[in-house]
Amino acid sequence: MKKLLVLMLTGVMVLGMVGCGSSSSTETTTEAEETTDEEEAEVEEEAEEASDADSDLAYVQEKGTLVVGITDFEPMDYKDEDGNWIGFDADMATAFAESLGVEVEFVEIDWDNKILELDGKTIDCVWNGMTLTDEVMSAMDCSNAYSSNSQVVVLAADVAEDYADVESLADLSFAVESGSAGEAAAEDNGLSYTSVSNQANALMEVAAGTSDAAIIDLLMAEAMVGEGTSYEDLTTGVVLVDEEYGVGFRQGSDLVEMLNEFFAESYADGSMTEIATTYGIENSIIAQ
């Protein structure tokens, strides 16, 4: 009888111990699950923060401005009588900034330093009739091409007929914008040139007689030289190279896709063409 009682008591103690062990295990598992959930939440939060840090869109919206690097380049970017930046590129950049919910800010840059300015975040994009060259596209993430253009020779109207082909240009001295497609065209054709800060100054060099000719964008030449302009005695001559314009952003920027979508919508609803018509470049716009 005593042995039976001992066995029964022992069984009860074992069962009690098993029960206690099960409860402790459950509590430990629940705590582990809670810890895992917290860790996962932290990882997700850190990932979101890292994503925002890498996002140009988030960066621009947080500071409230889209800073656009430009030069004085009619009809793309130039100032009106009140000192406001206007032009096809300026108007499109303003509309794009509005679509992002931010203000636009235009900053004149040294064109030769555009990539440094972009990478240093003193500007958020380069939007100034920028030719999509191999150098540009390897250093920036660029939008789809939105306008066609050419590099053209500008010279005195009274001698233009004497310089009807590339070979005839060999003895002329040229003014070109430093770091521009015009400078590249001069180099590619073995022409003698002087680099200046922008295309407007290149025209001034020709008008002053310090250079025989300039190589600038055809769109600018059509707006700036000839009858009814400030340079009535100048005209366009040989076309050296055909090209396309695009907008440049930092490499990996999510603003590129945003701008391509904006271009497509603007072309579809006619607003891109309407702005282009305002500045006389509607025939140069590329379908989006």
Description:
46% of the residues lie in helices and 23% in strands. The chain is of the alpha/beta class. It has three domains: 1-54; 56-147 and 245-284, 3-Layer(aba) Sandwich (D-Maltodextrin-Binding Protein, domain 2), CATH 3.40.190; 149-244, Periplasmic binding protein-like II (D-Maltodextrin-Binding Protein, domain 2). Strands 1, 4, 5, 6, 7, 8, 9, 10 and 11 form a nine-stranded mixed β-sheet that branches. A two-stranded antiparallel sheet has the order 2-3. Strand 8 (173-177), helix 6 (181-188) and strand 9 form a beta-alpha-beta unit. The longest helix is centred in the N-terminal third of the chain and has 53 residues, at 2-54. It is elongated, with a radius of gyration of 32 Å. The model is unreliable at 1-23 and 46-51 (pLDDT under 50).
TL;DR of this structure?
By secondary structure, the chain is α/β, with parallel strands linked by helices. It has helices at 2-54, 56-63, 88-100, 114-119, 134-139, 181-188, 199-208, 218-224, 255-268, 271-278, and strands at 65-70, 78-79, 85-86, 103-108, 125-131, 141-142, 147-156, 173-177, 192-196, 213-217, 234-249. The N and C termini lie far apart (98 Å).
